[in-house]
Every structure is written in C-alpha cells, then in structure tokens.
C-alpha cells in the first residue's frame, strides 16, 4: 500500500501536513506526535522582522470552529533560521515554510534568505494586508496575485505554493492568476472572515473586531473551493479547512487535493495528524486501494 506522493517535485512519504499557525514550528507538538511520521511540517508564518501580532483578546470559540485574530505574530526570519530549521531537520519529514509580508519587498527578502537554507517548499500567505494597497489583502486581486507570484518565483530557490484566501468572489480566477505567475502549487483555503459579539459585555469578542474562522464549520466551503480549483489549474493543490478526521481528509483528496493540511483540530487533539494518516491507511486497506494516487481527484 503506497501513501507516497510527489508534490510540486518534492517526494512526500504521505499526503498529510500541518496548517500554518496551528502547529508552531513543530517543537510544541513533538512530545505528542512523532514529526517523522508526517509527510511535511508547515511552519507558522515567518516575516522579515519579528511581528508582535494584534492586541488581545484574539481568539474565541464559535459554533463548529474558532475565530482568531493573532495577526501573524512571529519571531522573524533570523530566529527562525537559527532555531526552528535545525530543530525540524532532526526529523525525517519535509519542511514547508509559510512566508508572510506587508509589501512585495518583505516577501522577497524572506524568500531570498530561505534560498540557502535546508527547507523543501515555500508557502506564501497572500491573505496578508497589503499596506501599499490600503490594506486590501494581496490575494483578493487576481492581477496582484499574478504579479507577486512572479516576483517571488524570480527570487525563490525552492518550489512556491501560493496560499489562497477564500474571501473572494471567484476562487478560480485567483488560482489561475497564481498559476499564470509561475506558482508550483496552490494551497486553500485560508480562514473566512468572521465576527462574534459578546452579548454580556455588549462588545466584540475579539479586540480586532473581526477574525479568521476555521474549523469544521468551514469544511463544506473549503471542499467546494478545492474541487473548483483542482478542475481549473494544472498545478497541484494542497487542501485544508476543517479537517478533523481521515474521512474529512479523504473528501479533500477525492475533490482533487494532492495533499491535505490539518489545522484547528490540532488544538483539541494534538495527535490529529497521525490519527488521520492511520485512518487513510485503514480506508485504503478496507477498500483495496493500493496507491493513494488512485483517490486524488477521483470525484468528477
């Protein structure tokens, strides 16, 4: 039985990784999960300098999920290179580095710094607000997506995954723009913008007013967007959004995702990733599927 895949030219032992921002850079979960069992570890977002993030409160639970307005708090590229890459390299897993920025130059700076580091793929978070465009997220304008993808590809030494925002009218246009810009793969979905009101305090539950909705509540939207995208582009798709079980992961795979990322589920089940890998194996065994690639995009 074969779970191995090729994703954007990188060999993976299985199609399961972590969703950026839900797993730190692996160290926090390493006492619960053997990171070597994962196809890859996707790190928390890394910027050119440390980001403090948003004011608190910045996380709240909602029905079927959670809202977060962390604001991409991270220690910056210098500490990431010094501390996190050497830690992850102790394990037999691929490293996907999530990159964030507020201007194209900030993205490119981080991508260039990573060019000489021992990491396998770069995932570019284009849901970041573009300060040069008045705060509109990079990923909400297809023309801007194509342009910034091209700029990043020119600077990158590793394959580039563009992480798409679902907060758009047409996800297909955005995915095709990333492909036109030279992306090696796309990942989706990032969080949906949401809000919660604390009625007892008569104010917003999050200091930022709005936050990113993740968890099981977003899964039907995510599966639909992954299916549409996989039908529209020739590059591979990394699917995510509310995956908690092997059944959830298999929905994304059958919809066309070559890989899946587990996010919010890690918070209530630290071993969710490994449980899902074992669940996929069990499904394949029970259904006499010899190769995971038989399932990728099998739903048309």
Blueprint of the fold:
Layout: E1 5-7, E2 10-12, E3 16-18, E4 40-42, E5 59-62, E6 65-68, H1 77-88, E7 94-99, H2 104-114, E8 121-125, H3 142-155, E9 160-163, H4 171-180, E10 185-188, E11 192-195, E12 197-198, E13 203-204, E14 210-214, H5 219-232, E15 237-240, H6 246-255, E16 259-262, H7 265-268, H8 272-286
Parallel strand pairs: 3-16, 4-7, 7-8, 8-9, 9-10, 10-15, 15-16
Antiparallel strand pairs: 1-2, 5-6, 6-14, 11-14, 12-13
Question: How would you characterize this protein structure?
Answer:
This protein is α/β, with parallel strands linked by helices and about 300 residues long. It has a single domain, classed as Aldolase class I (TIM Barrel), CATH 3.20.20.70. The chain is built from eight helices and 16 strands. The strands form four sheets. Strands 3-16-15-10-9-8-7-4 form an eight-stranded parallel β-sheet. Helix 3 runs parallel beside helix 4. The mean pLDDT is about 95.
């Amino acid at each position: 039985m074969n779970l191995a895949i090729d994703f954007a030219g990188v060999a993976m032992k299985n199609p399961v990784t972590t969703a950026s921002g839900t797993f730190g850079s692996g160290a926090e979960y390493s006492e619960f999960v053997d990171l070597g069992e994962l196809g890859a570890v996707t790190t928390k977002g890394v910027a050119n300098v440390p980001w403090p993030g948003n004011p608190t409160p910045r996380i709240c639970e909602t029905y079927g999920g959670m809202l977060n307005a962390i604001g991409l708090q991270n220690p910056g590229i210098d500490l990431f290179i010094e501390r996190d890459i050497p830690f992850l390299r102790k394990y037999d897993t691929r490293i996907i580095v999530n990159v964030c920025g507020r201007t194209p130059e900030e993205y490119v700076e981080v991508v260039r710094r990573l060019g000489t580091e021992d990491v396998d793929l770069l995932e570019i978070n284009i849901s970041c607000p573009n300060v040069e465009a008045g705060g509109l997220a990079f990923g909400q304008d297809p023309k801007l997506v194509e342009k910034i993808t091209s700029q990043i590809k020119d600077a990158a030494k590793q394959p580039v995954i563009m992480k798409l925002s679902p907060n758009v009218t047409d996800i297909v246009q955005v995915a095709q723009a990333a492909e036109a810009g030279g992306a090696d793969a796309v990942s989706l979905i990032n969080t949906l913008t949401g809000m919660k009101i604390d009625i007892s305090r008569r104010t917003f539950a999050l200091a930022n007013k709005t936050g990113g909705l993740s968890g099981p509540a977003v899964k039907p939207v995510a599966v639909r967007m992954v299916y549409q995208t996989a039908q529209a582009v020739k590059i591979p798709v990394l699917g995510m959004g509310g995956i908690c079980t092997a059944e959830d992961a298999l929905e994304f795979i059958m919809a066309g995702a070559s890989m899946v990322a587990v996010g919010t589920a890690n918070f209530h089940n630290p071993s969710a990733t490994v449980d899902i890998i074992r669940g996929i194996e069990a499904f394949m065994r029970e259904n006499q599927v010899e190769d995971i690639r038989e399932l990728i995009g099998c739903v048309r």
